[in-house]
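Quick illustration, no need to memorize.
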Amino acid sequence: MKPCLLLFATLILSFSVQIGSAQVKADPFVDKMATDTVKMPLDSLTTVHPKKSHFEASLDYQSNDVYLGRKDSTVLPYFIPALSYYHKSGLYATVSLNYLKNTTDSRVDLVTFEAGYMFHTGLYTGQLSFSKYFYNSQSTSVTAELKESAAFENSYDFGFIKTVFTGTLNIGSKLDFSGVFGLEHSFYLFDEDLDLTPTLSVAASTQNYYNDYYRKRRYSVKRKGETQTGIATITGTVLNASSFKLLDYELTMPINYTIGKCTFNFTPTYSIPVNAANIAVHTVRDNGQVLDKTKLEKIDNTFYWTLGVSFLF
C-alpha cells in the first residue's frame, strides 16, 4: 500500500514540474480562486474567494457515504441540494440536505447549516467554518451522532505543489479531533474552463463519534431485509475511541468544467482505511442469555464518487 502512495505522490510532483508552468498562469492561485468554486469531499471544506457577493445553488449526487475510510454496512447514496451565499468580504453561509435514495429507503437523512470566513494573502489561504447537523433518527451514517463541528483549513501554494492541512473539532457526546494533510496540484485546460486536481491525503482522528455510532445506530436501527431471530438487543463499543490515530489514505482528483456561471464537477475518490478498530459487542438474546465478544472491525478499500452541478447568480 505505502509504495503505491509514494508512487502516486512522485507522479504528481514530476508531472507538475514538467508541465505545470506551461499550463498555469504566473499567479494561478489568485486567478482561479477569484473566479471558481472548488468542491471538495463532503467531510472537507468548500474553498472560494469571490470577486463580488453572490448566491450559489448546487445539486450533487454522492455514490456512498464514507468518512475517514469508515462506512455503514449499507450503501448510502445521497442527492445533496445546497444554497449558499458568499459575501465579497469572505463571509459565507450554506444550507444543504442529504436525501437518501436507494432500493429500500427514501428519506432526508441530514440537514446542515454552515457559516464561515475565507481569506487569502499571497499564496496562503485560510478558511474557518462552523457547522450544525440535524440527522434523521433512522440515519445509519457513521457520523450520525455528531451535532456540530468547527474546522480550519490552511493551504499554501508552492507552485509545483500545494499543501493543505485541515483541523476539525467534531462535537457529539464527546469531542473528537481530526487532522487531514494533503498534497495537490491543479492543471487548467481550455482557457482554464476545465481544471483537474490530483490529490493525495492522509487523515488521523479520535473515534468517539464512531463509538456513538456503534452504541446507538449500528445495531439498533433496523435495516429493511435484515432479521435478528432470537436476539433482543445488540450494542457495540469501540475500544480506545479517544486515541488519536491514523485512519485513512485517500486518492482523489476533482474535475471542474465551467460554462459561464454554471460549473459541472466530478470527484472520484479511492479510500484506503487503516488501523481497524476493536469492537466489543454485547448481545442479549430473547431467552435472557448474554453474549460478549470482541472483534476486529472489517475495513476494506472503497471507491466512491460525487457528480454535481452549481450555478452562480
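The first helix runs from residue 2 to 23.
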